[in-house]
Amino acid sequence: MHTFTIKKIKNISIYNSLFSGQTFSWKTINTSSCQYISVIDNNCIIIEEIRNEKIRLSCSDPTINGKTPEVFFDWYFSTDILSEQCFPDSFPIDRREVWNLVQPCLSIRILRQDFFQVLVTFMCAQGIGMDLIRRQVEQISRNFGTEHWVEFNDEQLCAYSFPLPETLAQVKPEELKICTNNNCTRARNIILAARAVEVGVLDYTILSSPSLSLAEIRERLCKQPGIGYKIADCIMLFGLHRFDAFPIDTHVHQYLREWFHFPEALKSLTPKVYLELQRRASALFAPGLAGYAGHILFHCWRRNVKNLTSC
Questions:
Q1: Three state DSSP letters for 204-260
Q2: pTM for the complete prediction?
Q3: Where are the domains of the chain?
Q4: Which of 13, 86, 100, 266 has its CA 20 to 30 A from that of 78?
Q5: CA–CA distance from 125 to each of 186, 249, 278 (Å)?
Q6: Which residues contact 193 (CB under 8 A, 6 or more apart)?
Q7: What is the per-residue pLDDT across 233-247, written as a single tens digit (0 to 9) for each?
Q8: What topology is assigned to 83-102+245-305 in CATH?
């Protein structure tokens, strides 16, 4: 393993960033440590939080996605953006109660993740809890990804890379459904999405172009079976790194009602209501960062209000 020590950015929680419902591929090596393992770009990565405001990265290869580990860390954890930047100067005054509640969660950073993995992950996530999402993602990686063994602290550790689009494109629904909670429709939709990525119908380079509006990207994503507004917005936020995309699930719907008293939040989340809530919510936050702020509030609502611990 190649090991690098990085000065930790102040006010960033590695744990809360990795386990806030935006990724499901990281695992804690043991419950008493601040050590986390995953595979990115076929590179097995271990992140350790150590003393003196430092991070230790151990990698099976010396570069990650063509970047040095230091550069990758800053990019992956979006250290170019401070969470406080997501909220306008008037927010702490106009929304004092919410601002006080959210303080412990401002250490969260949005992760810049792989587009295809996010696409499949949030197609798995429809209507189920986080523990089950994590189990499905792990099963897909175990069954169709690549096994990676590394030695760390005199132990042999195993992690799995997420399968490539061309791999999942060739899988049969009967094989994949064991990884999707026996949901054959979900398995078929994931395979169709993998084929769309493989042939360029869903092309990361095109979809991530700044010239495309959120509505244009959402329209292209929603042409795929199994992708609705919320999943499309999650894909844009976490996989296309569009920090202005604002997904609305049950928890977001609830906090828009309880914290911001939007009358639309009293209604069922139809597509029309969804888009109106999204429009109104986006106006609350700094331009271009509504989704980033929304995820911080999502984590705050789940942990500090609903007392949910699953991640």
A1: HHHHCCCCCCHHHHHHHHCCCCCCCHHHHHHHHHHHCCCCCCCCCCHHHHHHHHHCC
A2: 0.94
A3: 1-80, 83-102+245-305
A4: 100
A5: 10, 11, 20
A6: 119, 120, 123, 202, 224, 226, 227
A7: 999 999 999 999 999
A8: Endonuclease Iii, domain 2 (1.10.1670)
